[in-house]
Design a protein that fits this description.
The chain is about 70% helix and about 0% strand. The protein is mainly α. It starts with a helix and ends in a 14-residue tail after the last strand.
């Protein structure tokens, strides 16, 4: 399959397509069935689709199209589970976590993602792809068992929504309160004028999460280290590429602890600004190094250049994992008030998967123009995001999720607080 580019494209894109669909589906499911039931569903879906993906590679047939169809179907289902996970888990954690620890606990979700990526890099050492894909059954199964045996509670916000399907209106004017009780909130409400600025911020958060370039390293690390496009010499050993990729995954995992330590101490806004500046400068330095010394990845290149390129990759990853990576999930669930939080979370998570797909499709073709072009572009996007967050992103550390942000002074608007006094927690 590695020699059949079109088949590989179908296999990869089917997962991303499923992720996009899972994010859109998430809003409908969590609103009707609650968070806990959807978590049980997505855990089973992820486990069974992972097992099916691995099983597809054991099918004995001379018709490769049959294997391809099975792979695409199961990976699309797996993508649905991943998309649901990217919406429901951060939403669920943010609604249950104490305000002073919400950022830290939601960041743990990012740690689980990066740990999975690191394990994926280690599979290069195994080499048996059927077994590796079947092992994807384990996380979904564990999530199902933990949710069931640990008797995780349902979100109190969902209980309140079930008792008050019109949800809680903002108290600005008495007539607005009366009018808002007469209608249900719909998907298009996230585009309403009162939510416009938060919508713009959500859009830029999605751009920062993907188009600053992190997945160019996550997806294409072996290609960057060995491809003639990036390493136009013949003395780049596969062993070097493998070692560099595994070190990259390990550093990625360690870097996310920066956000874990500081997100609830210094806040979201400073981390987002500093992180994007660091990423932009690192991308620029990476591009300039490739420009000056094209053979930097070769085994015979000067040690100083290899250390320099490693430094830029390392700082780029630290910048991302202390800002755009984990804080996207934190900020999206803190920016929007309870009336549209589920819709906004699903919409902007779907948007990140769309940008993810665009990056995965466009990265290598753009790099063929010149190996430095994508990284110069990432630098420009990073500077734009840093400037935007400096002027537009409010600080949401410690915000009560029962309230919404008031624009102009970055203060909380007074709204009718949700009543949590009589909730019956599912267990």
């Amino acid at each position: 399959y590695q020699r059949r580019v079109r088949g590989r494209a179908f296999i990869v894109s089917s997962l991303l397509l499923g992720c996009f669909g899972g994010c859109i589906l998430a809003y409908l499911l969590v609103e009707k069935f609650g968070r806990k039931r959807v978590i049980l569903f997505l855990s089973l879906l992820s486990a069974l689709s992972s097992f099916g993906s691995g099983f597809s590679l054991f099918i004995q047939t001379n018709n490769e199209i049959i294997i391809l169809v099975f792979l695409v179907v199961f990976r699309t289902l797996l993508g649905l589970g991943v998309g649901l996970t990217s919406v429901v888990i951060p939403l669920y954690v943010s609604e249950l976590a104490p305000e002073e620890k919400r950022g830290t606990l939601v960041t743990v979700f990012q740690i689980s993602i990066i740990f999975g990526v690191f394990l994926g890099y280690l599979t290069y050492l195994i080499g048996i792809w059927q077994v590796v894909m079947i092992l994807g059954f384990v996380p979904g199964f564990l999530l199902f068992m933990i949710t069931t045996l640990c008797r995780l509670p349902e979100s109190p916000y969902w209980f309140e929504e079930r008792r008050n399907p019109m949800k809680t209106p903002i108290i600005n004017y008495e007539e607005e309160e009366v009018e808002s009780k007469k209608k249900k909130f719909k998907l298009l409400d996230i585009f309403a004028s009162k939510n416009r600025k938060n919508f713009i911020i959500g859009y830029v958060l999605a751009i920062a999460n993907q188009l600053t370039g992190i997945n160019s390293f996550i997806y294409f690390a072996p290609t960057i280290f060995t491809s003639s496009t990036f390493a136009p010499t013949t003395d780049v050993s596969p062993q070097f590429a493998l070692q560099a990729t595994i070190v990259l995954g390990a550093w990625n995992l360690l870097s996310v602890f920066v956000s874990l330590l500081f997100v609830d101490r210094i806040g979201r806004r400073p981390l987002m600004i500093i992180g994007n500046i660091v990423m932009a400068l690192s991308s620029l330095g990476f591009a300039l190094t490739l420009h000056i010394y094209p053979g930097v990845f070769s085994d015979t290149s000067p040690l100083s250049f290899r250390l320099l390129i490693g430094f830029f990759i390392a700082t780029f990853i630290v910048g991302f994992e202390s800002s755009n990576g984990p804080l996207f999930y934190v900020c999206i669930n803190e920016l929007f008030d309870p009336t549209i939080r589920e819709m906004a979370s699903g919409y902007f998570s779907a948007l990140t998967w769309f940008f993810n797909f665009c990056l995965s499709v466009a990265f290598l073709p753009v790099a063929t123009i010149h190996r430095t072009v994508p990284f110069y572009a990432f630098s420009v996007v990073g500077i734009f995001c840093a400037v935007f967050f400096y002027f537009m992103l409010p600080e949401t550390k410690g915000i009560n999720l029962r309230y919404s942000l008031s624009w102009g002074q970055n203060k909380l608007e007074k709204i009718v607080p949700l009543d949590f006094s009589n909730n019956i927690i599912l267990s």
